[in-house]
């Protein structure tokens, strides 16, 4: 049987949708629908036509279009996003329609009114990891437009996109002038961050950064980190600015996260310890204190035992020695809830509606502001894939460094929020009791992540400075 000829061609694909559209519709169905129609009619459709694009599909809040030129696709997107800032200026934050846009160049199947293929799928996945009001492009697009458009691009690393077989090199378009928001925040604080890369033993590329001019302080990597977006979002920003004002802060994105490679094979405690050594070597650190948060505490403990000559102090915040699958204190009901969370993450992590991510956010920072909750949902979406998120939970759940605690010889400070909803304070008490000579400090609050408004955050920062002789 002769296979029917299929028309194929190379094209630039633009995919767009509204961030948090389900929430907006739930709050004001008619108003949201009217806003979307107005934006489409007055702005988006006209800009696409201006740049000789063709609208393929407009299902729901989504839009798929194609352009003969990658340059025109990017120019169109930039005009749309910049115009949306103006159109949203007088709209209350909670009611704004903010678009995410992804652009890819790829070979597609032309079926008349529709286009199909991997190139379309990649564009849709790029859109799903773009920030609100932002644009993400593939390496193929960057190659086509570089030198032709006066824009700056921020590297987001090689990322495993949902249902895409190969890792994709992703770049974010900088829309607000020559400097990114992160750069402006750092400049205002008289700080400058340098991002560099090193190779782990298995070839995974790790992104690390230095900021500040004081004595060195190495912060362990943790789940859902991003060396640039951490400065932009109102979650870790205050905490990082305070540390960088006193120390030369070195931090890195864990494998599978942020600017580090997303396409990783090994994901174990030993691998994370080896990655920390790789970063410390590349950053030129010889003997230094380590600040570890949450699951990073177990990594820091294992590193300090393997390299006692390099670690001067340990600061462990919100940590635990044994994960959910190893701790004798975890109830069967808690384990069942944990497994249910993993299933929800597999199904809904990449969805436009952040319901699944909010389940995790609620336990991490129950007293966060609406702005911080939205930001953390965004941070989760742009810093890790669903696959990596689930693998992280599995790996951390199998941590067990209880037998290492009595062997730690470096000065250690252990801190924990009294009513932490994510990790019970008993876990840090176990760390402090097991490490000889460790000092234990209880902080007021409920949030697992130390937020700017938390009553315990100033105490937390002051304790770090005192412990390291920088009060």
UniProtKB/TrEMBL annotation:
Classification via Gene3D superfamilies: alpha/beta hydrolase, Nucleotide cyclase
Residue span(s) of domain Guanylate cyclase: 12-127
GO biological process terms, alphabetically, are: cAMP biosynthetic process; intracellular signal transduction
Q: Which GO terms describe its molecular function?
A: adenylate cyclase activity
Origin superkingdom? Bacteria
PROSITE patterns tied to this protein:
GUANYLATE_CYCLASE_2 (PS50125)
Q: SUPFAM superfamilies of this UniProt entry?
A: alpha/beta-Hydrolases (SSF53474), Nucleotide cyclase (SSF55073)
Recorded protein name is Class 3 adenylate cyclase/pimeloyl-ACP methyl ester carboxylesterase
């Amino acid at each position: 049987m002769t296979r029917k000829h299929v028309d194929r061609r190379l094209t630039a694909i633009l995919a767009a949708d509204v961030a948090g559209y389900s929430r907006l519709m739930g709050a004001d169905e008619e108003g949201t629908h009217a806003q979307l129609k107005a934006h489409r009619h007055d702005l988006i459709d006209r800009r696409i036509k201006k740049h000789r694009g063709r609208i393929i599909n407009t299902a729901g809040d989504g839009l798929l279009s194609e352009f003969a030129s990658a340059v025109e696709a990017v120019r169109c997107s930039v005009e749309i996003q910049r115009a949306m800032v103006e159109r949203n200026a007088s709209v209350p934050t909670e009611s704004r329609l903010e678009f995410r846009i992804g652009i890819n160049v790829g070979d597609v199947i032309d079926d008349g009114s529709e286009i199909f293929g991997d190139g379309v799928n990649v564009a849709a996945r790029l859109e799903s990891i773009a920030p609100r009001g932002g644009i993400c492009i593939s390496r193929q697009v960057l190659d086509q437009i570089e030198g032709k458009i006066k824009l700056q691009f921020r590297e987001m690393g090689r990322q495993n996109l949902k249902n895409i077989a190969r890792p994709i090199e992703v770049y974010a378009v900088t829309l607000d002038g020559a400097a990114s928001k992160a750069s402006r925040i750092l400049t205002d604080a008289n700080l400058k961050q340098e991002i560099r890369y090193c190779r782990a033993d298995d070839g995974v590329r790790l992104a690390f950064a230095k900021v500040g001019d004081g004595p060195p302080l190495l912060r362990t990597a943790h789940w859902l980190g991003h060396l640039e977006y951490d400065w932009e979002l109102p979650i870790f920003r205050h905490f990082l600015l305070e540390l960088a004002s006193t120390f030369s802060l070195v931090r890195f994105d864990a494998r599978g996260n942020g600017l580090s490679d997303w396409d990783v094979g090994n994901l174990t405690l030993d691998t994370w310890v080896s990655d920390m050594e790789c970063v410390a070597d590349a950053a030129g650190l010889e003997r230094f204190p380590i600040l570890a948060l949450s699951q990073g505490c177990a990594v820091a403990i294992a590193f300090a035992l393997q390299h006692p000559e390099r670690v001067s102090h340990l600061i462990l915040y919100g940590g635990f020695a044994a994960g959910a699958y190893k701790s004798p204190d975890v109830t069967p009901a808690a384990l069942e809830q944990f497994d249910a969370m993993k299933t929800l993450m597999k199904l809904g992590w990449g969805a436009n509606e952040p319901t699944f991510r909010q389940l995790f956010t609620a336990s991490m920072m129950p007293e966060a502001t609406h702005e911080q909750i939205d930001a953390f949902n965004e941070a989760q979406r742009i810093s890790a894939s669903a696959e990596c998120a689930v693998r992280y939970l599995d790996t951390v759940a199998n941590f067990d460094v209880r037998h290492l605690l009595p062997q730690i010889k470096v000065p250690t400070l252990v801190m924990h929020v009294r009513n932490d909803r994510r990790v019970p304070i008993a876990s840090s008490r176990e760390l402090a009791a097991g490490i000889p000579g460790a000092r234990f400090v209880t902080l007021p609050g409920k949030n697992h992540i130390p937020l700017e408004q938390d009553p315990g955050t100033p105490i937390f920062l002051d304790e770090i400075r005192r412990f390291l002789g920088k009060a």
